[in-house]
Design a protein that fits this description.
The structure holds two protein chains of two kinds. Chain A is mainly beta. Chain A is built from three helices and 17 strands. Helices cover 7% and strands 49% of the residues of chain A. The longest helix of chain A has 12 residues. Chain B has one domain. A two-stranded antiparallel ribbon of chain B has the order 1-2. At the A-B interface, helix 1 of A face helix 2 and helix 5 of B.
């Protein structure tokens, strides 16, 4: 039974990072924008030349940062990469379980053509749909066509069409953070859509329209739109605003929120936060004539500091209140993540969390401490 | 005095209602969309994407199909996760309240939400049809 439990917990918690996204912890402290290090205007996945240089410079034993250490040369129009992740650790929810599990095996490719156009795609195994394993064992989580106004640069106008995550908020890599899980961008929430994005050192704006994935049983069942804008008030201070409207067969969700980022240079401390108000409107039906309109909050405050050259410490505080009119159903957590960038390709991360419901009065507390191994191809 | 009363009212409003006075709709639609979908229907578990244990709770139709009585392979109608009117006998309540293998695995449900689900089932599981074939 313990083995079964461990396997199920593994599947449940599995892929603590699940998808390779950017580390916004480096924004302001290392670079102004996600495009400073990534090919995608939203960040995540493939690194550009500057991103590779950063990966090398901040690692303990800085090795050649290129794809397969540069042993497999690629033409200038093609960028390849990938992420492998696995983890093992202790979970108490409140059952106490030791578990080990794979998290991510994904390959990425970006091919540029006609100067301004590029095709981006990733590919890898996925958690299969129970009962339909044969048809759902591999997939491409993201694939899109991108047009970039300023070829070869990391600012300007970007247009994307295809399958990707709607762009909103801080876009943290760790999907268990409340602002991802409950904030509209949970794990595997990528879907088909179009985006117009403008990125400069001073500000950035992302507009995304999306539809429910028509081809697979999806994680999110909504169609709608998302908007995120961020202004850098100085090189060390940024503020942002976000909004999202989602419509499904059963309900509607409206989100509005703000973000803020401050880099305290003297203390080498980046403080960033996101606060989101969520108004869910459950459809009225014959058996549910009152509908229902739970109004909730999702918030996260993250403090990040480099420890020496190769360690990054994150301390995060999360709050999720699914319905502000109900007492003792809100969740609060403290996260502690310690990253060790050993080589340009290898990262060890200790992810840990302690969580309370209703500040201890609403249910059992939960906790986990998981050691994650991340290898970037 | 007037300010004190107003301030107290604001504080009470901010704190929300007492669970005993929980006025949230006790219906399949509300329970699914407000509690089961965000807590149980996440990607790796009972989403339509994963359908762990052949169950999904991220849409009303899928939750309905998991909970309403359905035909088994022999064409016999059998009970699934909810027995309308009897929360104690319903598998849904059992798995969410037992101490071993409790659901959701990654984080327990708030007690006030468990109580709402219990009252919904004991109240006849409004919205849940007699058979899963009627779910829509």
């Amino acid at each position: 039974m313990r083995l079964v439990l461990a396997l199920v917990v593994a599947a449940t918690i599995g892929a603590l990072a699940g998808d390779a996204r950017a580390y916004p912890q480096f924004q302001l402290s290392r670079d102004q924008t996600c495009t400073g290090c990534h090919l995608s205007p939203a960040g995540g996945n493939l690194l550009n030349e500057n991103g590779l240089a950063v990966a090398e410079s901040m690692s303990q034993f800085g090795t050649a940062p290129e794809f397969f250490y540069g042993k497999i040369p690629t033409p200038s129009w093609l960028v390849l990469g990938g992420d492998l992740r696995g983890a093992a650790g202790y979970l108490q929810t409140p059952e106490k379980v030791l578990a080990a599990f794979p998290m991510q095996i994904e390959l990425y490719a970006a091919a540029t053509f006609a100067d301004h156009f590029s095709i981006h795609a990733n590919f890898g195994p996925r958690p299969s749909t129970v009962g339909n394993e044969a048809a759902t064992s591999v997939w491409s989580r993201e694939h899109y066509l991108q047009w970039q106004q300023k070829a070869g640069e990391n600012e300007g106008l970007y247009l994307r069409a295809g399958r990707f995550m709607p762009v909103i908020g801080l876009r943290l890599a760790e999907h268990p953070t409340y602002i991802r899980r409950y904030g509209g961008t949970q794990l595997y929430a990528e879907t088909y859509g179009v985006a117009a994005e403008y990125v400069t050192a001073k500000y950035e704006l992302h507009l995304t329209g999306f539809i429910k994935d028509p081809f697979i049983d999806p994680v999110e069942h909504y169609s709608g739109g998302a908007a995120y804008g961020e202004i850098r008030l100085s090189e060390k201070v940024a503020i942002g605003a976000e909004g999202m409207a989602e419509i499904s067969k059963d309900d509607k969700r409206l989100r509005g929120g703000v973000t803020g980022k401050v880099y305290l240079e003297g203390a080498d401390l980046l403080i960033q936060g996101e606060f989101q108000f969520v108004n869910q409107l459950i459809d009225e039906t014959a058996t549910n004539p009152a509908g229902g309109a739970p109004q909730g909050f999702v918030g996260y405050l993250l403090l990040s500091r480099m420890l020496g050259e190769a360690f990054l410490l994150d301390v995060g505080f999360g709050h999720y209140d699914p319905n502000r009119s109900v007492r003792t159903n809100e969740r609060d957590c403290i996260d502690l993540n310690l990253h060790w960038f050993t080589t340009s390709h290898l990262e060890l991360v200790l992810n840990s969390r302690y969580e309370l419901i209703g500040l201890g009065d609403g249910g059992d507390a939960g906790a986990y401490a998981i050691l994650q191994l991340h290898y970037r191809l | 005095m007037h300010r004190t009363v107003v301030a107290a009212a604001i504080v009470l409003a901010a704190c929300g209602v007492d669970p005993e006075d929980d006025a949230r709709p006790k219906t399949l639609e509300y329970v699914t969309e407000a509690i089961l979908a965000p807590s149980c229907g996440n990607a790796q578990c009972h989403s339509s994407f994963r359908q762990s244990a052949h169950r999904a709770f991220d849409t009303i139709q899928r939750a309905c199909e998991a909970m309403a009585p359905g035909m088994n392979d022999e064409g016999v109608l059998e009970v699934r996760d909810v027995i309308a009117g009897d929360a104690n006998a319903s598998f849904l309540m059992t798995v969410m309240t037992r101490t071993i293998d409790r659901m959701p695995y990654d984080q327990p449900l708030p007690l006030v939400d468990l109580e709402l689900i219990r009252k919904w089932i004991d109240g006849g599981a409004i919205g849940l049809p007699d058979t899963a074939e009627e779910c829509k």
